[in-house]
Write a structure and sequence with these properties.
homodimer, mainly alpha, 4 helices
């Protein structure tokens, strides 16, 4: 597999984990996602590329699982907000002044 | 825009935000991502579908930004780990016993 749409990845997570995710529930699935984000931080700090890749994969996987059990189409959400320009300043690249 | 590959979305984030993300740095970009995850939790708790979609979009956007400045191909990472089966039990759907 060379390329995958965000939606296809979310659907794959649905096939693999939806029953389990549903049983676990939203609160605990969110907690797992938050834990994975902590592991990503540790992997980045440890400067371990393979571990970092692994943790990025886990974060997007758990994010997709959470989207599945909250009824959100992650790809549509992403495209609706971010579509070739910054949603705040409407420029590309972003020209927001903070 | 109807469909988007994970890699295309990451590249869009690169076009829009790479300079700013680089200036902010890995540590602070991670912190923004963690803050967005907290906002996602609040949106889910608030049972507000539009806000929840919005926060899912922000989490995948900031995750992509963090991948850009840490030199990670998020799509490759995701496919390498999750490819039509659970990476732990090698089954689809997952049959892991916890």
């Amino acid at each position: 597999m060379k390329n995958i749409h965000i939606r296809e990845f979310q659907k794959m997570m649905h096939r693999l984990y939806f029953l389990r995710d549903t049983e676990r529930g939203v609160k605990d699935t969110y907690r797992w996602l938050a834990d994975e984000l902590g592991e990503l931080e540790e992997a980045i700090k440890g400067n371990d590329k393979k571990a970092t890749e692994n943790e990025f994969a886990d974060v997007i996987a758990w994010l997709s699982s959470l989207a599945n059990i909250t009824g959100i189409d992650l790809e549509r959400a992403a495209i609706n907000k971010y579509s070739q320009k910054c949603p705040k300043c409407q420029q590309a690249p972003c020209q927001c002044t903070f």
